[in-house]
Amino acid sequence: MSPLASGPQGPTTLRPLLTTVLDALTAGAATRDGPLPSGGPTEVAARLREALGAPFPDHGDEDALRTLVQAVAAGAADPADPLCTAHLHCPPLAVATAADLAASVLNPSLDSWDQAPAASELEALVTKALAAEVYPEVHAEADRTRTDSEALVTTGGTESNQLALLLAREHHGHTQLVRAENAHHSLRRATWLLGLPEPVTVPAPAGTMDPAALGEALTALPGPLLVAATAGTTDAGLIDPLPDIAALCETHGARLHIDAAYGGGLLFSDRHRPKLDGLARAHTVTLDLHKLGWQPVAAGLLAVRDRHDLAPLGHHADYLNADDDTEAGLPDLLGRSLRTTRRPDILKIAVTLKTLGRTGLGALVDRVCEQAAEFAELIHRHPRFELHDRPTISTVLFRPADTTDDTVAAVRRTLLTEGRAVLGRARLDDRLWLKATLLNPHTGADDLAALLKLVEGHTPR
Ligand SMILES: *Cc1c(COP(=O)(O)O)cnc(C)c1O
């Protein structure tokens, strides 16, 4: 019989399996000499197919755990490698990953109290604390007024943005989304999913929303309107002028959502938090702790300024939240998500917040922002590179000087195919840039110099 992870024997059963996993991770990583496997998609797929064999054999294979963990580790893009800097793809903290193991073992499901008695209370407390990071003033007044902020746990920015649009629609009816051309693609998808009109696009000439153009749009458009601003664009890490946008929304009676999936992490840093001034004036805010929060996926949040806004998510299913159970004091959890069965992603988040504290987490944020500034300076001083701009958060866009877009694209793909470096790409000012999103606090100046040298070496003269 296959042993179980939980129950009194669970830990004893798991211990040797964990050793197997850790050994396989080490062995797999050792077969790579860079941040990702060499050979490109065809070779990587062939090696994986070879390791997997029959995906669902008639008779089990006891070695499958070792074989498959090793194969996936061998073929991984390792975000902890300093040269893996393409995306908002962070290296997870060890302590958060260990907590995530406990979540898998205990397997609480956050759709009813009787499946997650303590985890549901942990979620209530920690989401409240995170909401207070976004909405400090509102929180301070919580005892005196009925306004009270709250946050929901989501699978990431995409789900958070969807929920924000759904809440706007439920409050105002057929809402028109207004967003800048720099906004995340998930917002447009959410309008499609929710049957809302095609979004109106405001120009972002310097990479951030143009407030004058927003003002014109808000004057011209019939309501109800939802403005979506971005704090930390995916391509360049830029922050829209939040106070100006918030003021315009207030003047025109438009609802405001701020997508801070990336930039929200700046809240943890005393040095960088002022860049988010105006955030608390939004009705809803997207945060993503699997970006600037060093969590294993998934760790999204949607903060809402007034928890009463969440009322439309309330839902009844007699087996999960019968009225008499709720009246008898069993917490009703169904209104906290559109999902039913739901992992306790809050556990790893809670462990991280408490282990590192504000200063610890803030130091990580400061560190990656500092690295980005140093990297930009290195590029700026290098005669063979062009820097797009000084970073606002931890994204640096650059390209080899005097080359074509095709060369920029080819350099990136060659580095990927060789398994030497993972760089992203972004089109800004109608030109293609290489993108380094620095999210590894352990990356050093020498790593960044090596990355630049690698790109230089792969650029045809
Ligand atoms: C990453 C990102 C998203 C989407 O978040 P996921 O966690 O990938 O779903 C949304 N908005 C912005 C600005 C992002 O950077």
Automatic annotation (TrEMBL):
<comment type="similarity">
    <text>Belongs to the group II decarboxylase family.</text>
</comment>
<keyword id="KW-0456">Lyase</keyword>
<dbReference type="InterPro" id="IPR002129">
    <property type="entry name" value="PyrdxlP-dep_de-COase"/>
</dbReference>
<keyword id="KW-0663">Pyridoxal phosphate</keyword>
<dbReference type="Pfam" id="PF00282">
    <property type="entry name" value="Pyridoxal_deC"/>
</dbReference>
<keyword id="KW-0210">Decarboxylase</keyword>
<protein>
    <submittedName>
        <fullName>L-2,4-diaminobutyrate decarboxylase</fullName>
        <ecNumber>4.1.1.86</ecNumber>
    </submittedName>
</protein>
<dbReference type="InterPro" id="IPR015421">
    <property type="entry name" value="PyrdxlP-dep_Trfase_major"/>
</dbReference>
<dbReference type="InterPro" id="IPR015424">
    <property type="entry name" value="PyrdxlP-dep_Trfase"/>
</dbReference>
<dbReference type="InterPro" id="IPR015422">
    <property type="entry name" value="PyrdxlP-dep_Trfase_small"/>
</dbReference>
<dbReference type="GO" id="GO:0033983">
    <property type="term" value="F:diaminobutyrate decarboxylase activity"/>
</dbReference>
